[in-house]
Design goal:
- By secondary structure, the protein is of the alpha+beta class.
- The chain has one domain (8-233): Sandwich (Jelly Rolls), CATH 2.60.120.
- The protein contains three helices and eleven strands.
Length: 234
Amino acid sequence: MMINENVTMQSLSFGNEKNKVIYCDDFLVNPLGLVDFASGAVFSHYAAASQRKGYPGVRTPMPADVADEFKQTISDIIKAEFNIPAEAKVTALQNAMCLMTVPEQELGPLQRIPHFDASNPRFFATLLYFCGEEHGGTGFYRHNSTGYESITPERCDPYLDASYEELNRKNPERRYFSESDDFFTKIGFVPAQFNRLVIYPGCLLHSANILSDISLSADPKTGRLTANNFFIFE
């Protein structure tokens, strides 16, 4: 058993929409075991890296037995906390350990603003930190011109139209997004903490918040190592 049976869980809600985010501390019994695994693993870039899109770093698959245990435990939590029917079938779309490695001056425009993972309301993202608060955390945002804090299917086209128009009008600074600017307002934040799992609907506008270049490292023992998992319920 990798996952702590006595995990502590906290529920947060952010912004005008009161969207729910869950975090669980002390999630794994032996988190250092996965850090050691990552230290010996081969990481590769995401497919969209050449277009300067998507996750700004590298990834390696999680061990299959750990991924299976994650899927069962996290599925149970999501069904209980987000009103997903018990009979819904869960599919894991990604089970990866990730490191942010792209310098700020090399970020593409879409990597410099908050993003959403999917508009499907039954798509969920989880992020397990294998690093501490010196690596920032995860921020959640409102898009100012539309007022959207989550991007549902009916909001997707209006949001993308407005967001691309803003990108064309004012190219964002070459930096990782963190605090509010003219186009986005920060409405919530979950600090990084070693062995903390964060669970949120993938439709929420969010961004990794990093504090310094120490987070941009390919060394799993010192960089911003996380387990990034996606689940969809049908």
